[in-house]
Design brief:
By secondary structure, this protein is of the alpha/beta class. Helix content is 43%, strand content 16%. The protein contains seven helices and six strands; from the N terminus they run E-H-E-H-H-E-E-H-E-H-E-H-H. Strands 1, 2, 3, 4, 5 and 6 form a six-stranded mixed beta sheet that branches. The chain binds flavin mononucleotide.
């Protein structure tokens, strides 16, 4: 069965972001897609220290929180949804620390796993936040699912979000599009195989050194 892993960067397990993610989970479950939601935002997640140890260990050097536990779940998943409240027009700090470490420390291929970012704000900064989160996917060969609007809800409380009918509709349509993409990629992998990618160039400067 196809599986989608969802991350909630908010410290509120029943807040605005969770309300948006739960709207997606209902659609996934109706469609026969397995889901798992991890609440990241209430945990103490430190940032990446660029020690590079993950290159040898195959996991983050800090083994004291959710990142290394989430990694195998991400590896098995066909899709990843990352939800974040907007803090000063950016994703909240906890989800950024988590995403930096999750993406940097994991050696497995993320190629063709479907990604989606979901953001919740009271009033502004949602599209800037959305851009930041989508960049984890697009540097990793992950196709990004879209919807009938940018993937955002508005509210200060979960009750506000329940009144954001267009936001919730956007979440349902996002889950439908993601479901389609996951199934279409699985079929296309059988029929054509995934594209072969070149590797080996790691160029920082104009002279290649
Ligand atoms: C530190 C902090 C910064 C915030 N910055 C913004 C902001 O820039 N724009 C905005 O519209 N709302 C901002 N908010 C409000 C939250 O983004 C908003 O209430 C969100 O929907 C809460 O989602 P949650 O219930 O999932 O935590 C901020 C809240 C906090 C705690």
């Amino acid at each position: 069965m196809a599986k989608v892993l969802l991350l909630n960067g908010s410290p509120h397990a029943d807040g605005c972001t969770a309300t948006a993610l739960n709207e997606m989970i209902n659609v996934f479950q109706e469609s026969g897609i397995e889901t798992e939601l991890i609440h990241v935002g209430s945990k103490s997640i430190r940032g990446c220290i660029a020690c590079g140890k993950c290159g040898k260990l195959g996991k983050c050097v800090f083994d004291d929180d959710l990142v290394n536990q989430a990694a195998p779940k991400f590896e098995k998943a066909d899709g990843l949804v990352v939800g974040s409240p907007v803090y000063y027009a950016s994703p909240n700090g906890t989800i950024l620390s988590f995403m930096d470490r999750l993406f940097y420390s994991t050696p497995f291929s993320k190629h063709m796993k479907v990604g989606a970012a979901v953001v919740s704000c009271r009033r502004g900064g949602n599209t800037a936040t959305f851009d930041v989160l989508n960049k984890y996917f697009t540097i990793s060969g992950m196709p990004v699912a879209s919807s009938t609007y940018w993937n955002q809800v508005h509210g200060f409380t979960a009750d506000d979000v329940r009144k954001d009918l267009e936001g919730l509709q956007t979440m349902r349509n996002l889950a439908r599009n993601m479901t389609f993409m996951i199934r279409a990629f699985a079929d296309a992998k059988e029929k054509y195989g995934y594209p072969e990618l070149e590797t080996g160039c790691f160029t920082n400067f104009a002279d290649g050194k």
